[in-house]
Design brief:
The chain has helices spanning about 5-30, 35-50, 60-75, 80-85, 90-95, 100-105. The chain starts with a helix and ends in a 10-residue tail after the last helix. The protein has about 110 residues and is an all-alpha fold. Residues about 85-105 have low confidence and may be disordered. Helices cover about 75% and strands about 0% of the residues. The protein is elongated and about 40 Å long. The chain has a single domain (about 5-85), classed as RNA polymerase sigma factor, region 2, helix turn helix motif (Rna Polymerase Sigma Factor, Chain: A, Orthogonal Bundle).
């Protein structure tokens, strides 16, 4: 006899097998490969916790990718991500000593792009 718990474990394992590689590639485009594996695992934790609440009003893949997109967006907005992506001091100093971006980029833009 298959219990509800066993059915949920089976369903989650099926989802994991089918979507792990796809989600990793999808998330790598958001955050880069270095952070994509951690983010992929975070998405699967959220899927596991919310699987019982999936109402079937959309395709399962749509629901999964919405969770992935929201998780990636949250990560990109996270102050901890921004702090971990700071430039080394020598690179920052080199960039600061060059011409301001407004004097080099803005004139190059067409009027409609400004």
């Amino acid at each position: 006899m298959i219990t509800t718990m066993n059915a949920n474990i089976y369903e989650f394992n099926r989802i994991y097998e089918e979507y792990h590689a796809k989600l990793f590639r999808y998330l790598a485009r958001f955050v880069g490969e270095d952070d994509a594996e951690d983010l992929t695992q975070e998405v699967f934790v959220k899927i596991h916790k919310a699987l019982d609440n999936f109402r079937g009003e959309s395709k399962l893949s749509t629901w999964i990718y919405r969770i992935a997109t929201n998780t990636a967006t949250d990560r990109l907005r996270s102050p901890s991500l921004n702090c971990s992506r700071t430039l080394p001091a020598d690179t920052a100093m080199t960039m600061a000593s060059t011409a301001p971006i407004s004097s080099t980029v803005i004139p190059a833009l067409s009027k409609g792009s400004r």
